[in-house]
Every structure is written in structure tokens, then in C-alpha cells.
């Protein structure tokens, strides 16, 4: 369980996030949504200890600020929005960096083959020998996800759940790979781990998230299940767009969309 | 279970994109190259002294036929060439490894101790002793004797590094960009102060200064090695512990932290190790350029940027190249000798430009 109480973050004297309460349960995908500049990434950086914050953050009941880097690295992995490199690493060498500090949780002899398996998971079979800098943005993002997966390969280690923090994991991906990545996240949660993801696509969010946290101007505007949170009123209030929230009809019920008129 | 049996079958084939095996082979070859360079340096020089005979006599305990000649050869080999070779190895290794560490720390293949002002600070300290050693700083030189110059260079380098660190660190986090820019400013200031001192110097001091500033291993003596050797060895032996952290740092400071690296401690250790090794090197040999940039750069092309292999390989290649450069410096205008800094610059600068042109577009500087 990740629990945060009264999180506030100020950058250069300006308060970006104020008094946010947050909780992500193992077994669930928790999504953070909100318009640009609402403080999503800042909140995530506070939850991962990257930015100084006031309030408390606990991982599995332990205070984050009292943890050594290597202890935190064993409990959670973090995927940043974009990662640039200044040295010519191969894809294999980048993914292998995920094994540096934490513990993957596989048998000791299998660590060496983990980068290959992680690359296969993100649909990058055969990319191990390529140079990272020569890949497209979407491929680079998936390489970084493979690295992050190596760090916490087993969602549960010694009976304790572990967590994935993903900052816009599908932002530069095509639709096929968006679904692959979101399925990896859901699978990680199904097997007992916890996932915290910042998402922009409200449809993907509704599809995959068990809980949604909506941020608006640095404050929590709503939190709950997709059906509770994604309402016409909230979308208009937070995103300043008058949109209709629809719902799929029950399974096997035929329906006809008027837009399909020829 | 199927996966376990594949792993259990012990597939030894290296994974695609894994350059570890090649890196280990290169390191082995560099070890052999260094041995060869040491041998070459011990046997070559302005005098015809035979290092082979001296070493053979020493091992076999044989009494030489011509005692006077043997004594002269022994003097040349033991007291002139050996300390010089050892100093070349220490300084070449230190400069190249420090370059690699700085580049990892700043995440920039052009970062170099010369760039962030460590060398300039060391130079200022040393020049101050050369010019003011007989006047304002006379008590210092009197108290420290021959140690005054190395210590001044060391503290000059350390002072710059600590100043940089204080400027670039806010709320416990060091901004690499600020440090790089502040380094350029401090470098300029240190060079200006050095310029003022040079302006004040007399003719004899000017000669000393010029030679020292261009860099030379000519002043190598056993006592000097006793002073700077332990500092360099200590700094170099700290570096293997930095390699994993520097690899993680390639992904950025935040990500390195998420991977479990204590980033602040890593940066602090790297900075202290580099300023100690560079200060010590500059103190005894002056400014020797290009080793710190060219060596790691070439090796990254050959074995990749993994610091676990890059750091030892840089130290080995740096030592070999400096010995070769010194051999050239000693023999090309014998019995006089060129400052070694000229040799490394003449060979290093065009080579570096050639790499840049050839790899333009592949390496994003």
C-alpha cells in the first residue's frame, strides 16, 4: 500500500501541489489524471521521493523519507516521461541497468536473461543490439519500460507487494503498443503488485484503472472508481470541456450509432 | 518451468548487444600494451644505458665487469628512468580515468577536469609558489621545502572544486549545468590571476613557468612519487566503486536515485577523487592536455560506455599513451627534450577532431 497524506510541493516558492491525499492499493491500477499543469508529474515526483515535499508518504507502512535509496528501489520502480542519453549505450545495456540497485525477484541465475525477456514483453524482440539513440521516441519509451520491469520483475517479493510508477507510459505510442503497455500494467497489478500511472487518454483510463485521482490546479478534485469519477460535471469542471460521458451497452446488446449514416 | 530449464541448460552465448566480453578482451590487451610501453620507456633515452643489463644484474646478483659504467647505468635506470616511468604511468592513468569519471558525472563526453577549472586552480597554486616562493610566500616554501609546489597545486585544485560545489549545490542537490558554467568562469578567473603572477615573474621564473605549464615528466624523482603516488593510487582505487553509480547516472540523476544509487554520495566521492588525482598530477607534471578527453572517447567507441570496463581501460590506455608521448618527448630532440604537453596536444587535438568528423551524427554532443 502506498499512502500519502497532506502532500504539498513548492518549486521556487510557487506551490504546485497542495494538501493532496493519495492511496494506491496493491492489486490495483491507480490512475492520476488532470489537465496540463495540474500537478500530476509533481505529485508523482513527491510520491517517489524525487522532489522535497511536506506531508507523509509511506510505502507498505514505512516512511519513504526514512528509506535508503536502495531500499526504496527494491519496493518500486519509476518510469519517467522521457530519458535522453549522452553516451552510445545499446538497448541491452540500458535494460540491464534496471538490475543495478533493486532485486528483480527471479532466481539468481536468471537475472542475466531478464533483459531479453523484458524486451520481449514490450514487443521489442531483436532490438537488444541496437543503439538506444537510433530508436524512435516510442521505441525508446518501451526500452525504458523494459528497464523498469527488470527492476521489479516479480510484483510481490518476500510477501510484500511492489509498485510501478509510470509517468505517461503511453504518450508517444501507437494504439497497438498503448494496449500492450496498459495490459502489462494491469497484469502487474493482477499478480499482486501496485501500479500508479499518469494518463491523458480518458478512455484508456476508464478501461484499465481501478481507481482514478483527478487533479485540478494542484488539488485533488475527485477520487474513486471510473464510474464514480468520470461524469459530465467533473469533465466540464476540471477539463473545461463540455463533453458527454458515454457508457457501453451491456454485452451482446446490438446498438446503432447515428454517426454511421451513409 | 520451461524458462528455468533453458537458463539451467547454461547457455553461455552472450546476449545480443552485450559488449562485456569484448571489453574484457580489450582490457587484457591494454594490460599487455602497458607492459610493453613500460619496457620501451625503461630502455630508451638520451643515454645508452642498458636497462636490460641493470635489471638482469639486479635479478642475478652478478657483479658487473666495468664497475664505473655499471654504477652510471644504475643511476640512470634507477634514479632517472624508473621514477619517470612510474610517474608517467600514475599520471597517465589518473588523467584518463579522471576524464572518464567527470564525463560520467556531467553526462557529457566533453567534460574534463581541465574544463571545470580543477587544472586551472592547481596551476594557480603552483605558479604562486614558483613566482612568490622567494618573496611573499617565503615562509611557506621554507617550511615545506620541495613539497610546497605539489601541495599548493593540490590545494588550488581542491579549493576550486569545493567552491564550484558550493556554488552549484542548493538544498542538497548539485546542478551539473551550473557547475559546468561556473567552472568555465572560475577557470577564467584562475587563469587571469595566473597571468598576473606571470607578469610579475622574472626571467628565470618565466623559463620555469613556461616549461611547467606546458607539462613535463622531467622532474620525476622518488621523493615526488612518494608525495603524489599515494594520493593518485588512493583516488584511482576509489573509482571501481563509482562505476555502477556512474552507469545509472547516464539515465539522469533522478532515475539513478530510483535505481537505488545514493546519488549525492556518489557525486561527492567522484569530485573529491578527481580533484585529488588531478591536483597531484598537475603539481608534478604541469598541464598535460587531451589524455582525459581522447582516451575515454576512443574507448567508448571500442567497448561502449559501461564504466565498469571504461574506467580500468581508460587508466591502462592513458598510462600507455603518456609513456609513448614521453618517449617521443625525450628522444625527438635529444639530448634536449620537448615538454610532453606539446606532444599530447600535437597528437591528441587532430586525432580528436578526426573522431568528431568521422562520428558526426552518431554521437550527439
Please state the average pLDDT score of chain B.
82
Strand content of chain A: 15-25%
Count of discrete domains of chain B:
1
The CATH architecture of chain B comes to Orthogonal Bundle
Structural class by helix and strand composition of chain A: alpha/beta
User: How far apart are the termini of chain B?
Assistant: 46 Å
Structural class of chain B: mainly alpha
Unreliable sequence segments of chain B: 1-14
Uncertain ranges of chain A = none
Question: How are the strands of the largest sheet of chain A arranged?
Answer: 6-9-10-3-11-12
What does this protein structure show overall?
The complex is a heterodimer of chains A (262) and B (365). With 262 residues, chain A is an alpha/beta fold. In chain A, 30% of the residues lie in helices and 24% in strands. Chain A has a single domain (2-246), classed as P-loop containing nucleotide triphosphate hydrolases (Rossmann fold), CATH 3.40.50.300. Chain A is built from nine helices and twelve strands. In chain A, the strands form three sheets. In chain A, strands 6-9-10-3-11-12 form a six-stranded mixed beta sheet, with helices on both faces. A four-stranded antiparallel beta sheet of chain A has the order 2-1-4-5, with helices on one face. The mean pLDDT of chain A is 92. Chain B is built from 16 helices and two strands. The longest helix of chain B has 40 residues, at 67-106. Chain B starts with a helix and ends in a 7-residue tail after the last helix. Chain B is mostly helical. Mean pLDDT of chain B is 82; it is low at 1-14. At the A-B interface, helix 2, strand 6, helix 3 and helix 4 of A face helix 1, helix 11 and helix 12 of B.
